[in-house]
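Lab manual, section 2.4: Encoding a predicted structure.

Procedure: take the sequence of the chain (377 residues), apply the prediction step described in section 2.3, and record the output as structure tokens. A sample record is shown.
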Amino acid sequence: MHPLFLFKDLSEKSFLYGYSALDDFFGLQTEGFYRVVTEAGLVDLGMLTEQIVFPGEEKVDAIINNLSEEIIIECIDSEFPDLDRVGSFKLPFFKDIKNGSYKDPRGIYPILKKLRGSIKKGIAWDREKDEVEQIFVVESYQALAEAAILLARYKFPLSIQINIENQELLSPLLQRELLTQVLTGFWAETGLSLLMRYGFIETHWPEISSLNSTFHNKEYHPEGNVWEHTLATLPHRKTRELTISLALFLHDLGKPFSIENGGRTFDRHAQIGALRARKFLSNLGFSPTLISSVCFLIQEHMLPAAVAKLPASRVEKVLSSPLFPYLLELYRCDLSSTFQGPQGFYEACQAYRAFLRNKKNPFRNSGGKKLLRLYVD
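Recorded output:
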């Protein structure tokens, strides 16, 4: 049973809120986090499930942890229509968890209706046809984070006015929520660009900010620096799954911290990046299983380029990993954002297919060599 069903047992009203309600309206899959506001008190919530915790953060009264999902709960003491004053989300939109009806206290439904068809297809809304924009005043890093989510998930037509007076940093929980929602959006690069442009990444994630001052050889990379290359990989994804999205976001994290060696500009940057990514993700509180998967992809992301040239015995362990298809997707996105063509990706796929075929054949080893003599003798 999905943990949201727990709120149907409450006598008090409970609503999906913010991007969670927008995702539901647009028919998008919410990954990692849900936002809920409820008129129930902390005592009532504590009786819902043993998986609930009370972190004591502002605007986060309780959290329900359910394997890979977290429900962030805010308690309210007023009835609708005063709900438009809860939380800090600038474009409030609600869904009643019990009866399934939507609440639109600020009248944004006409815009949502126009956006609906294009968002399901991952196509940005044509603003030239409908020049309706919402003014979004950004006075804090929290508001900047919310603007980034709206742009990354919905390409929402915002007229953003930046005036950050409240420079209070987001907690690790809220940073994890932000990164998850932005990276799993169709237009993740748009939200990330906003966060970099207005200082969020520099103040919260300085190791990520260093990508913006680390430059590539333009013979291979048209983007110029590592940050721009990172953003350029994201539109090539065939899936917005968090594992592959985090791996793309962090795959070159080691480059600012590596040195030139033997003609290699960023020597061992994959290994260095995996170590730094593990620390970065751990500090934000991502699950150990997810961290291990992402760091495996980062550490091995250079391998697909060479897998067709290496003997199968040297790469058998990596090829046997259930994560190798993810590694191929990472390689394809990485390659697609450079001047190089897709030939290397096709060769890697061919080598992987041959490996799988030979692995199933009891008369050949993983490299395709015949084993018939061994069985006969």
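Check your result against the sample. The two ends are 57 Å apart (CA to CA).
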